[in-house]
C-alpha cells in the first residue's frame, strides 16, 4: 500500500474509532508492537531472597538494548496510580531471548518495591523507558577489577558479572545475613569456577564494613578499577577513602538515593492545578509531599538524575536538598520535585 493510501486509510479509521484513536485499539491487541509507547510485559517473577525478586520482562519492539550496569525507569500501576521508579538491569546485555531482568528488594513501606516483589503477576504490562546511566564497564579491559557492593546495590554489578568476564575480579559484598545475599548461589558458582574471589561481610554479626578493612580484605584495592553500589554511608566512605589515596579516578559509584545534605524551614505547599494545600517540612521532597496528598506527580529516578519529575514553580521558593541552593519562582522556572523541598510557602503547578 502506498504511503498516501495508508494515510487516508488511517484517517478513515480515526473517524470510525473516535473518541479513541486506532492506536488505542491496537494497544489492546498488540501493546508491545513497534511504534507504540515503549512497554514491557512481565513474564516471570523469581524470588531471590525473603524480600527480593527478579522480574523477567519482555520489552516491546522499540527497546534499544542496554549496557551492563545501566538502569531502566519503569512505570507500574499500584492501586490505580502509575508510579515510576528506576531499577538496574541484571540480565547480560547479550541475553539471547531478548528478555531483560531487574531485581528488586522490597523496602519497608516501599510502594513499588513491595508491589513488584510480592504482588506482580506474569502477564502484567508495565511502562518502560530506554536504558540509561553511565555506571558501565569501559571499552578497554581493566587488568584488575573490584566490585564493592551492599544490599540491593549488588544488582548493577550482577549485570556486569553476567555480561563480561575479567581475568582478575574481586568482590566485597555486605548483607545482614548469608540468606540476605541476593544471587548468593550464582556468586558461589563463579567462585567455584575461579571466575571470582568473594568476601561476604555479614553485617548482623561482623558489623558495618569499615572501609579501612579493605587493606586486609583486598590488599591491592588501590590498583583495581572499582565499581561500588550500596547505601550512602558506604559510598561516601569509599569516595573519601579513594580520594585520600589519590586514586579517585579508579572508583565508579552508583547511588539509588540522592545524598540529602541540607534541610531548612518548610512551608505551606499549594498544588494549584489539583487545588490542594498541605504543610511541608523543609526536608521532605515535594514529590513525596504531593504523592502523599494524592496529587498525580510526574516522577522518574527520584534522585535528581533523570529530570522525569520537573514541574513549574508558580510562586514561592524551594530548596535543593543536595546543595541547599534556593530557587525562587519566576516565569518559566522548572524544579526537580524529587530533590527539592519547600523553603517557605510555595505553589507547584500540579
Ligand atoms: C539508578 C537507580 C537504580 C536502582 N536500582 C535498583 C535495583 O536494582 N533494585 C532495587 O531494589 N532498587 C533499585 N533502585 C531503587 C528504586 O528505584 C526505588 O527507590 C526502591 O525500589 C524504593 O521504591 P518504593 O516505591 O518501594 O519506595 P517508596 O514508596 O518510594 O519509599 C518508601 C520509603 O522508603 C524510603 N526509600 C526510598 N527509596 C529507598 C531506597 N532505595 N533505600 C532505602 N529507603 C528508600 C523513602 O524515603 C520512603 O520513606 C534504584 C534507584 C536508582 C536511582
UniProtKB/TrEMBL annotation:
It comes from the Bacteria. Its cofactor is FAD. Residues 35-138 form the FAD-binding FR-type domain. Residues 267-350 form the 2Fe-2S ferredoxin-type domain. It holds the Pfam family NAD_binding_1. GO terms for molecular function: 2 iron, 2 sulfur cluster binding; metal ion binding; oxidoreductase activity. Keywords: 2Fe-2S, FAD, Flavoprotein, Iron, Iron-sulfur, Metal-binding, Oxidoreductase. This is Oxidoreductase. It comes from Streptomyces spiralis. The lineage of its organism: Bacteria, Bacillati, Actinomycetota, Actinomycetes, Kitasatosporales.
